[in-house]
Amino acid sequence: MYTLEDLKYLMTRLRDPESGCPWDLKQDFSTIVPHTLEEAYEVADAIERGDRHDIKDELGDLLFQVIFYARLGSEEGSFDFEDIVDNVVQKLVRRHPHVFPDGDLRARFPEGTHFTDDQIKSQWEAIKQQERALKNQEQSKAGEVGFDPKRDSVLRDIPANLPSLNRAEKLQKRASQHGFDWQTLPPVLDKIEEELEELRTEIARAGEGDFREAGVHERLQDELGDLLFCCVNLARFLKVSPDAALRSTNEKFTRRFTFIESRLHARQVDIEQTELETLDALWDQAKADER
Q: 129-166 in b/e burial notation, b at 16+ Cβ within 10 A?
């Protein structure tokens, strides 16, 4: 069987200036990003489908993305694959003091040693805050004064290009860790009602006008964004992943809509020529069949 070393060699061949692949030679860090995101989602999709063969296949594609970045880093002299491995092992050992005593990868706690979930979570958050503080110190310039959001904000290391639902959840969690949060559920629900009412106000204000009109569109987008952000906050309070919840609903919608299509196909009826009342009835039937 081929090994990790073979995969690294393959990448070297692909990037060979004389005999490599023209497409691979054109790539850089930024051009590879869309492919990395796509591969990560394909892994998630294979896992949701429970297809072990596809999971193996898609994980290989995702691993190749790491090999690609490592090769690019090696070519410019900034890092290589071994640096990536060393960095992640150091980080994970540091973040798991309940598994690796004294930060030693090979060390073990005495048999019977036990840590509670609360202790582990508390340690994890403390370590993450220490890491952020250290990174802040390293990035600070000597004698520099004033607040720089890119250097000083507790939100600074949350990637801006995360999927919107995931980023909203991470922003809220980080702010919560620093005291900016409600303590009970009712205010969260009240805030959703408040934002929904503000959206209704903007819709009424638009009247019969075009929702795509510049000023109208901006106000509606702003209010709808506030409502979605509050729904993410509700999911956080309910201990539900907003991304997982929406993905589940997407699958549910797909399942029920294809049920409608299959029934209409059996009747040799075009969906576009079917009245909404009939479509709604088939939707209810699909929903009932799932119970």
A: eeeeeeebeeeeeeeeeeeeeeeeeeeeeeeeeeeebe
